[in-house]
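Q: I'm teaching a short session on how sequence maps to structure, and I want students to see two examples side by side rather than one. Could you give me a first protein with its sequence written out and its structure tokens following it? Keep the formatting plain so it prints cleanly on a handout.
A: Of course. Example one:
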Amino acid sequence: MTSVLLAQDRGPPAMPHQEANEGFFGWGPVLLLLFVVGGTMAWAIWRARRRPSTLPRFDDGSFQAEVLENRMPVLVHFARHWNVANAAAVSQTELLAWKNRGAVLVGMLEIDECPRTMDRFPGLEPPAYVLFYRGRKLFHRPGLIQADDLQAEIDVALSREGF
């Protein structure tokens, strides 16, 4: 009689298809998904690092002379080289540089390598765009922005300055 009670306490035996379904919805697919997403992000960062940008680079030593004291308007793309969103932002910045050649100087500043310059702009998170003219900040736009939208903002800001 004791053996009958023990068998009833354990419930019915698991069928082979039930065990297979429990394994399918376990940790295996979650880990596989994390592996695929992580691999994709690593590939994007690696690819962005391999492709050199044609944009001029500003640093702590050149920022004052090349950006703030420049007679030409300067659009600075504040960036982090390891940020995945930055790869898309760099292509947009290069497009803006091509569209504005001769009228607006467009360049990049790697914020992790320029602590003195970043002390002037607390709270600025990349990717971000700042348009400077004669030492003044005309506008600041954080985040990923399409080149056409940013070009419209550049045109408005420069028209207010008499360009």
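Q: Perfect. Now a second example for contrast.
A: Example two:
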Amino acid sequence: MTTLADVTLQTVPVVDPQSSLAEAIELLKADPLQTVVLVGDEMYMGILNAVMLESSLIPTGVDLATLQVGPYVRPTRPLHPDTTLEEARAALERKGVLALPVVAGNVYQGVVTHAELG
């Protein structure tokens, strides 16, 4: 059975928790997958994606350059390299996102999209 370990994962911008929220949003908007991954101390911490920008999670009326991105990143449960392509496809559809992170032992590996799943 084919798993995520058998496919080439895509890359998206990676930021650390101390990066400004404004910087992370700028990177997100410029990325075709509209996804930014948060990595701190070389460990996966979560993602910021377009769905989150539309939620009430991001404050309005404040200078986003003064806020660190860490508190605003959702600790999305990542996929594991042993996840089958069918399971990954179902997760993407269920969550309604363009990309999901793949993490092995808390180490970020990349993201998977529908393109890798055939």
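Q: What should students look for in example two?
A: Point them to this: The domain at 4-117 is CATH 3.10.580.10 (CBS-domain). Also worth mentioning: The chain has one domain: 4-117.
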